[in-house]
Amino acid sequence: MSDVDMKTTVIVGAGIAGVHAAENLRKEGDQGRIILMDSDQQMPYDRPPLSKKLMTGETDDTSILLRDPSVYDELDIDLKLGVEVTDIDPERKTINTKDGSSYEWDKLILATGSKLRTLSIEGDDLQGIFYLRRMTDALAMKQHMQDVKDAVIIGAGFIGAELASSLKQLGINVTIVERSSYPMEPIVGRDVSEHFLDLHRSNGIDVITGDSVAQFNGDTMLEEAVTAEGRRIPCQAAIIGVGVTANTAVSHPQLQTENGYVVNEYGETSLPDIYAAGDCTSWPYNGTPIHVEHWDHAVNHGKTVAQNVINPQSVPYAYTPYFWSEQYDSRFQYFGHAKEWSRTVLRGSFESNAFTYFYLDDQNIVKAAFLSNQAKNALPVRRMIQQQSSVDPEALADESIALKKVQRAKV
Question: Any idea where the Reductase C-terminal domain is (predicted)?
Answer without folding.
Answer: 322-406
